[in-house]
Amino acid sequence: xxxxxxxxxxxxxxxxxxxxxxxxxxxxxxxxxxxxxxxxxxxxxxxxxxxxxxxxxxxxxxxxxxxxxxxxxxxxxxxxxxxxxxxxxxxxxxxxxxxxxxxxxxxxxxxxxxxxxxxxxxxxxxxxxxxxxxxxxxxxxxxxxxxxxxxxxxxxxxxxxxxxxxxxxxxxxxxxxxxxxxxxxxxxxxxxxxxxxxxxxxxxxxxxxxxxxxxxxxxxxxxxxxxxxxxxxxxxxxxxxxxxxxxxxxxxxxxxxxxxxxxxxxxxxxxxxxxxxxxxxxxxxxxxxxxxxxxxxxxxxxxxxxxxxxxxxxxxxxxxxxxxxxxxxxxxxxxxxxxxxxxxxxxxxxxxxxxxxxxxxxxxxxxxxxx
Length: 371
Hints:
The protein is an all-alpha fold. The protein has helices spanning 16-44, 47-72, 80-100, 107-112, 128-151, 158-177, 179-182, 202-228, 230-240, 242-247, 252-278, 288-301, 306-326, 331-345, 353-370; strands spanning 193-194, 197-198. It is 73% helix and 1% strand.
């Protein structure tokens, strides 16, 4: 009597049940995140804490773009504060015009400025459609211009990081110097309304939180789709071997440019939503230090993992708020040390701990079998 054994799956393929489980994991994680953000957090947190969480979620949006550009494309973007600020100022300009009312100047212009009417470059932002579009398209346009100039000249690595950081410094200095039209060091403050809704009302503040949470989930879904697409594979190939990609007929500059522009758009959208959540945008939020803080969150959580980058950004932002109150002078040093330790000893961030533990267990198992 002969017995037959089931055919083994082809090399490189998972069993059918395992494939279904692997495919269902992202959907389950997405559903869990939605429940946590839309049900658990509003019930468990006070209005003040929920407002802080909304602020942290905005930094997580920037981390999603950093995960795409740095984690997948190898582009160490130390200037995301520029795009965050462009989106934030575009939104704040419209809201300040709306708060002032028809024919009136924003309050800071009446205090510091000498003009009797809006500057010409402020006027388009009175239109809400233009302002909303500008929060995303303006950062993407700046990134496209800068990226085309940089990537086509094959500037990469530390040189690209320094250049992006210099851009953040120049942008912050320019904002400070234009006190009559940008608010100078103070920035645009005391924002009261959000498209007709009073931001002093706790109900409207919760509405802003829900909008931010929904946008974050959409950005995560978009980034995941990009990373799993053919473009995502090409981006990783450019990161690992740019010359091979060029020999295959692709232009690595265009591949990197797309990731850089998309990350800039995400940062601009985050800045735009940060304004109604906090009520302020200033040069202190867009310079070198904030840009580095955004990267630290993604590095600590895991720059190659969307989940790790998002949770890392939220965790670092929360730690900054909590610990800086107790150790205001030492927090900056601790933050820098955290970044160095993450890059030196845990390049994959906290998200890579599970894989490291799994590999060590497998190694121990193989060593035990050989003995």
